[in-house]
Amino acid sequence: xxxxxxxxxxxxxxxxxxxxxxxxxxxxxxxxxxxxxxxxxxxxxxxxxxxxxxxxxxxxxxxxxxxxxxxxxxxxxxxxxxxxxxxxxxxxxxxxxxxxxxxxxxxxxxxxxxxxxxxxxxxxxxxxxxxxxxxxxxxxxxxxxxxxxxxxxxxxxxxxxxxxxxxxxxxxxxxxxxxxxxxxxxxxxxxxxxxxxxxxxxxxxxxxxxxxxxxxxxxxxxxxxxxxxxxxxxxxxxxxxxxxxxxxxxxxxxxxxxxxxxxxxxxxxxxxxxxxxxxxxxxxxxxxxxxxxxxxxxxxxxxxxxxxxxxxxxxxxxxxxxxxxxxxxxxxxxxxxxxxxxxxxxxxxxxxxxxxxxxxxxxxxxxxxxxxxxxxxxxxxxxxxxxxxxxxxxxxxxxxxxxxxxxxxxxxxxxxxxxxxxxxxxxxxxxxxxxxxxxxxxxxxxxxxxxxxxxxxxxxxxxxxxxxxxxxxxxxxxxxxxxxxxxxxxxxxxxxxxxxxxxxxxxxxxxxxxxxxxxxxxxxxxxxxxxxxxxxxxxxxxxx
Length: 544
Ligand SMILES: [Zn+2]
Prior knowledge:
Layout lengths: L1 H7 L12 H13 L5 E5 L6 H13 L13 H8 L5 E5 L6 H12 L8 E6 L6 H12 L5 E7 L7 H4 L3 E4 L5 H14 L3 E2 L1 H11 L3 H12 L5 E2 L1 H4 L8 H12 L3 H13 L4 H21 L6 H12 L2 H4 L3 H18 L7 H17 L3 H4 L33 E2 L19 H18 L1 H9 L1 E6 L2 E6 L2 H7 L2 H15 L4 E6 L1 H10 L1 H6 L2 H13 L5
Parallel strand pairs: 1-4, 1-5, 2-3, 3-4, 6-7, 10-11
Antiparallel strand pairs: 8-11, 9-10
Helix pairs in contact: 1-10, 3-4, 5-6, 8-9, 9-10, 9-15, 12-13, 12-15, 13-18, 13-26, 14-17, 17-18, 18-26, 20-21, 20-23, 21-22
Bound molecules: zinc ion (ZN).
The site of zinc ion has 9 residues, from helix 4.
């Protein structure tokens, strides 16, 4: 069916050819002017219409009633070519006829004038497959081509064609068909087939085909085999791979916004709806790969094919584009890791969830703004020394070293520190009393951030620096990220009516306390948050 459709709608005139304007116009002008090259080289991906264009060219130059540059389609030559029985059009598939003898035979044929027509046209498909002696033999003919001979070499791998051959040819590079042009072409075929296909299905076909005409027609052919007069998205799901672009784009946007909790929630609901986490993980990997390629090639248009025009706008926004190539490589590494561990995962969606949390972390770091607010991490040997901060001058007390030898993190300060003279002292008892308020207020800003903060607990005040205790440094890492730290600092200021700073203290005992104190709160959270905690807790070793 699919091959039929491709054959059935194979262009018979230049006007019928979808896209490739740059090639069409040049060829048309050469036909009109009667100034043809002796050899053409068509390069580009498979199934994009190279051979079709070669046949059109052959038709045009041998047509008895050429109309401008268009072959008439009715004269004996046109009909013979259309039927594949022209003696003056020789098609060679270099994938099977690649040796010196094949080219020698070609050379013999080339010597004789065309049987009936003006030109003898040789189309050598997959030309890169020719052997070196065959290329040499071909070169000999090309160096002194008989007037009546025209070669068209088609290849998907131009780098395998010898430079000596390339320099003898007029070269054309075929491009992927732009999304909308391809979609319009599909629409036209649907009309001719008298079938109504949902717009979203055509989007999906165009996307899945990656801009290759033959693939798109093959997919459309599969849809047509359903035998319906009207194809809806759900009907198409029977034969087309399901499209998860919308979910993936939404997910990445959430991760970019630092909304890890919502991202995990989204994945959870998708899985409830039957999404295969392994499949989705691979799909996500592919999207990140495409973003990386677009980034490296500086060609964001190419992404249209991955996501369709509907989501392209979102992706081409600054946030997506600003992810560095380096960061993308790390993200893709995360995905690979998750794909590997999904092979032996006890909880099927866990590798995907862990992966998302890691990606979120990488993306938040990638804003490059974290370092601006949070002081550079200290050297390891500095870890147990008290931290200092410009706006913490009134905190003269040495930090209380507990028996756990906690690790002090750098102090997180507001961007514009308040003058120390105007800062009111806040009693630790007040902090404890109002802590549930802090958590509630945070939830309205960022649900997952509140959840992260609840993993820890207020430990004590040092001046106006609030020490937060965590079992794992990873949790505090998350909290001190610029965007998160800013939210927390604002909430603290709003609730305690004065500017506070905060820092982290890591030791095992906080985890135990958390388990006792916070169980009640935990029950109130949904299992997504629990998954976040499981994910993080299971991943991270206590800070050294
Ligand atoms: Zn004709």
